[in-house]
Amino acid sequence: MSPRLRHLTTLENLPRATIERLLDRAEALRDACAHGTRKLDVLTGRTVLNLFFEPSTRTRTSFELAARRLGADVINFDIGFSSTSKGEELFDTLHTLEAMHLDAIIVRHKHSGTPDELVHHAMSGVSVINAGDGNRAHPTQGLLDALTIRQHRPDFENLTVVICGDIRHSRVARSDVHALSTLGVKEIRLSGPASLMPEPEEFPHVVHVDDFDEAIRGADAVIMLRLQKERMASTDLPDEAAYFSRYGLDQRRLALAAKGCLVMHPGPINRGIEIASDVADGAQSRILEQVGNGVFVRMAVLNEVLAR
Ligand code: CP
User: Which residue minimizes the CA distance to atom 3 of ligand 1?
Assistant: First the structure.
């Protein structure tokens, strides 16, 4: 059995058995919830801090819900009204909050690597969970995307998954590639404008296909990504109409994929830029299932790092 995680900052190099254990636990929690179990007391007396230095709707809310459903207390740290705005440094904020006896810190930060720095500086006994750092990792998103695919297509060894859009700036794409390749997905294809693709040596085992029509042909799942304007220089910004015509997912392109291809997007979506409304809201869309699975994956991760 793979050892229990104390922290979760990335899926890179995580053993397959650990990823599968987290997905299995998330699935069991989803089943329990479907049968009416809405609250467990496995984390009663534990305190979880949501420390988000970047905006979030899905991740922050679902971590809060996940912690509460497991019986933990939750503090949502409001950066805008905190002493960060008076110049307090990250590690002073960390030690100040730790003095109030925390058990876990869920952190989102614009700088890649911040969660690992917190692991290094955190008091022993405090777990750190990465809720997205720069363009590096968003491990719980990678897990919930894998769970959503597994729910419909557990035969990973037969699957072709396409990830399309602004991959260069995407922590979601990186965590998806790490999760799906570890779980044995047959082929992962990356597609997007050359200026928004990663260096080929970053993912030598995935296929890069510039032409999205070609990339999506025969795909079993397609994960669309938002243009991360907040991480681009203004000169990198593509014209949105031209971008949609080359890389947007519409009904014509979806028809090139395998029958029943899963349509996914981590959100927030930009309708008419990376995905057409009738596809985002269509019968093949799994976007809201992804959101729902986020709660169960985050319950599974909190349970993993915090349960006694
Ligand atoms: N997918 C995701 O991270 O969404 P939020 O930014 O709303 O948390």
Answer: 59
* Pairing mode, strands 104-109 and 47-52: parallel
The answer on 51 and 69 residing in a single domain is yes
Crossing angle for the helix pair 139-152 and 287-306, to the nearest 10 degrees? 120
Q: How many CA atoms lie within 13 A of 306 on its CB side?
A: 30
Same domain, 111 and 155: no
- Asked if residue 47 and residue 163 are part of one domain, the reply reads no
pLDDT for 220 beyond 90: yes
If pLDDT is split at 50, 70 and 90, which confidence band does 288 have? very high
52-98 pLDDT, tens digit per residue, is 999 999 999 999 999 999 999 999 988 888 899 899 999 999 899 99
* Structural domain harbouring 221: 139-290
Are residues 193 and 170 part of one domain? yes
Please enumerate in sequence order all residues whose Cβ is within 8 A of that of 157, keeping only pairs 6 or more positions apart, or say none. Answer: 184, 185, 186
Q: Is the pLDDT of residue 48 over 80?
A: yes
Ligand 1: which atom is nearest the Cα of residue 138? 3
Residues 95 and 174 in one domain: no
> Among 53, 54, 58, which is best to mutate for testing ligand 1, by the most ligand atoms less than 8 A from CB?
58
| Whether 133 and 143 share a structural domain | no
Could you tell me if 181 and 264 are in contact, meaning their C-beta atoms sit under 8 angstroms apart? no
pLDDT at position 78, please? 84
The span from the CA of 22 to the CA of 299, in Å, is: 9
**Who has greater pLDDT, 80 or 153?**
153
What percent of the chain is modeled with pLDDT above 70? 99
